[in-house]
């Protein structure tokens, strides 16, 4: 569904889940998993025909028919004969549907309509959280950060505090503030360690992707020049260890079976490996030009090693981009990372795959 990845599940309003089967004739992708769809407030018994309308709207929403569910929720939310609690529940679910459909301005307006101080506190905080999520998706980092910080003030549940720290850490990471990001992600871990229940898969996966990104960023800060062979080897070894740590976090994100973060993990890993391959290939080419002037055999060995390892790294990057694309195929879920995965795969520098141990 369009925009489905933009709606992470929330714990208080029980989420509905679907798990599409792999298409016939294809091997099941080891990454394939279900997307936990947006939360739905389930109806409680009341008099009249309102439960029927509400249940019909919920059923449509569960079936992915938000185009039909949203106006039905809206009619319940505007009905003066319906109780205030039921109206707010309907408005909340209407906003969720609008968000799933990518109608962010309309969703924000409906969320804002249930921020009355007299409404349910949990529902009100949940609506504020979703507004913050929309702001972050629309690159309004300042507004999102202010929203999440304000929610931290009154957050009593440890899982809720962890979710907010994860959002703040991700926002700081996107802004290039790695120290602030690392601080929030550490705080999230402390909250999760002390929580009575595990984190929801969506947020657990998001946190793992952010941690992987931190290690990739640290790896990119290590410069590799072609001045001294031993120094080059040491620097490459350090970068390799950092990328290995990043890969461990990305793998942990994939195991949470959330298509959005599965694609983010494979996309980010592929980019990091491709960058490493390009740098190693460039180093090998520069060395090959200056080899006639070098007396030490160390340079020849280094040039040969770089020439062999660069294609291997490139193949891993290509495989990661392919897995990223396969997530869409196998799960039937379109995420905001999908087009980037396809772009990376279609524009992949195939010449990097050719080497002494690679078929052309």
Structural features, described:
The protein has 13 helices and 2 strands. By secondary structure, it is mainly alpha-helical. The protein folds into 2 domains: 1-17 and 30-148, Serine Threonine Protein Phosphatase 5, Tetratricopeptide repeat; 200-360. A two-stranded antiparallel ribbon has the order 1-2. It is elongated and about 90 Å long.
Give a brief description.
The protein has 360 residues and is an all-alpha fold. Helices cover 66% and strands 2% of the residues.
SSE diagram, text form:
Blueprint: E1 15-18, E2 35-39, H1 50-62, H2 66-77, H3 84-100, H4 104-113, H5 121-137, H6 141-153, H7 158-174, H8 178-194, H9 201-220, H10 229-254, H11 259-290, H12 297-331, H13 338-346
Antiparallel strand pairs: 1-2
Key phrases:
2 strands, disordered C terminus, Serine Threonine Protein Phosphatase 5, Tetratricopeptide repeat, two-stranded antiparallel ribbon, 2 domains, mainly alpha
């Amino acid at each position: 569904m369009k925009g489905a990845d933009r709606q992470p599940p929330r714990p208080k309003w029980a989420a509905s889940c679907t798990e599409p089967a792999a298409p016939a004739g294809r091997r099941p992708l080891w990454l394939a998993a279900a997307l936990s769809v947006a939360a739905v407030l389930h109806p409680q018994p009341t008099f009249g025909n309102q439960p029927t309308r509400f249940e019909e709207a919920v059923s449509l929403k569960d079936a992915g028919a938000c185009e039909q569910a949203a106006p039905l929720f809206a009619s319940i939310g505007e009905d003066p004969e319906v109780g205030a609690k039921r109206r707010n529940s309907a408005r909340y679910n209407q906003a969720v549907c609008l968000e799933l459909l990518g109608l962010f301005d309309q969703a924000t307006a409906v969320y804002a309509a249930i921020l009355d101080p007299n409404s349910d506190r949990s529902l009100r905080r949940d609506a504020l959280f979703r507004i913050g999520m929309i702001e972050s998706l629309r690159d309004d980092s300042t507004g999102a950060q202010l929203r999440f910080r304000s929610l931290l003030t009154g957050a009593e549940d440890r899982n809720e505090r962890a979710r907010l720290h994860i959002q703040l850490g991700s926002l700081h990471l996107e802004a290039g503030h790695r120290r602030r990001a690392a601080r929030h992600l550490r705080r999230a871990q402390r909250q999760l360690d002390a929580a009575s229940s595990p984190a929801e898969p969506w947020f657990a996966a998001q946190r793992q992707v952010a941690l992987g990104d931190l290690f990739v960023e640290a790896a990119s800060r290590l410069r590799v020049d072609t001045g001294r062979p031993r120094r080059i080897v040491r620097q490459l070894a350090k970068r390799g260890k950092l990328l290995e740590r990043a890969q461990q976090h990305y793998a942990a994100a994939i195991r949470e079976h959330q298509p959005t973060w599965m694609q983010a993990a494979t996309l980010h890993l592929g980019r990091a490996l491709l960058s490493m391959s390009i740098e190693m290939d460039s180093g090998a080419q520069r060395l090959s030009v200056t080899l006639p002037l070098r007396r030490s055999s160390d340079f020849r060995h280094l040039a040969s090693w770089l020439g062999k390892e660069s294609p291997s790294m490139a193949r891993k990057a290509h495989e990661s981009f392919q897995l990223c694309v396969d997530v869409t195929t196998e799960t039937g879920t379109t995420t905001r990372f999908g087009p980037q995965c396809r772009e990376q795969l279609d524009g992949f520098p195939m010449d990097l795959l050719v080497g002494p141990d690679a078929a052309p």
